[in-house]
């Protein structure tokens, strides 16, 4: 039998809030998000969906727990690093979760574009980590996520979904606006802007950047431990990181695992030559005038 939660959250059309498409339960609780009070020592992790959110969250949790992997298995990642705008019938919302955490609550994640972020984060000058991933791999990963996570509308065919992605008609809106918005914002705020492709190429160097940004100093062997624990292979089999603790009415891992391939350049297995040409022309147009650059493969 389907649960009322499932009925409520399954395959609903997206709603729009401040011109950004979002899940209906998120929009219903939007006032809580907008009025959320950040604290000066909060760390915000921001990404466009399917850009390595869980990976960077696990790295940060490992850093704050000094590489103690048992502590990092204390709970599912979505409880350890609450998702700020999350709202799901019958469960504590992200803001409610965060409000119950004492000071030094340390971190929260968001997929919100800069213009929708609660203003208190800017007022408190919080440290923020932004992780970007190339648009083509994001589109492919998002397509699979739409298929397995039932809070999304039906994605249709890959070609239909790609059209929606390019038009920004997917949850959280335009990838182009998202990465550019945060890219511009880093000029004025304490934002460490990172790239998924750099993390794939040299994860140790990127972890060291995070350590430096957070003012943390860990011994070499602890850094190596974090490196091992946060590798794709380790995280894919770790139930506290791979979203298998999420109820099946919300995510169906038999359709596609939440952690699918964790690679760079998988888009080549999906984009046709024609799709790639259309996408490249559209990308050039959308990113005109921006100094943002990312690698489509490594």
Mean pLDDT: 90
Our Rg estimate from Cα atoms comes to: 18 Å
* The number of domains: 1
Q: Strands of the largest sheet, in order across it? A: 4-3-5-6
| Highest-level CATH class | Alpha Beta
Broad structural category: alpha/beta
Organism: Chrysemys picta bellii (Western painted turtle)
Main location: cytoplasm
Enzyme class: transferase
InterPro entries: P-loop_NTPase, Sulfotransferase_dom
Q: Main traits of this protein?
A:
298 residues, alpha/beta, transferase
Describe this structure in words.
There is one protein chain. The protein has 298 residues and is an alpha/beta fold. It has one domain: 3-Layer(aba) Sandwich (Rossmann fold). The chain is 42% helix and 9% strand. The chain has 15 helices and 6 strands. The protein has helices at 4-9, 24-28, 30-34, 53-64, 77-80, 94-99, 119-123, 135-148, 158-167, 175-185, 196-201, 203-214, 220-229, 232-236, 273-286, and strands at 15-17, 20-22, 43-47, 107-110, 127-132, 191-195. The strands form 2 sheets. Strands 4-3-5-6 form a 4-stranded parallel beta sheet, sandwiched between helices. A hairpin with a 2-residue loop joins strand 1 (15-17) and strand 2. Helix 12 (203-214) packs across helix 13. It is globular, with a radius of gyration of 18 Å.
Strand and helix layout:
Blueprint: H1 4-9, E1 15-17, E2 20-22, H2 24-28, H3 30-34, E3 43-47, H4 53-64, H5 77-80, H6 94-99, E4 107-110, H7 119-123, E5 127-132, H8 135-148, H9 158-167, H10 175-185, E6 191-195, H11 196-201, H12 203-214, H13 220-229, H14 232-236, H15 273-286
Parallel strand pairs: 3-4, 3-5, 5-6
Antiparallel strand pairs: 1-2
Helix pairs in contact: 12-13
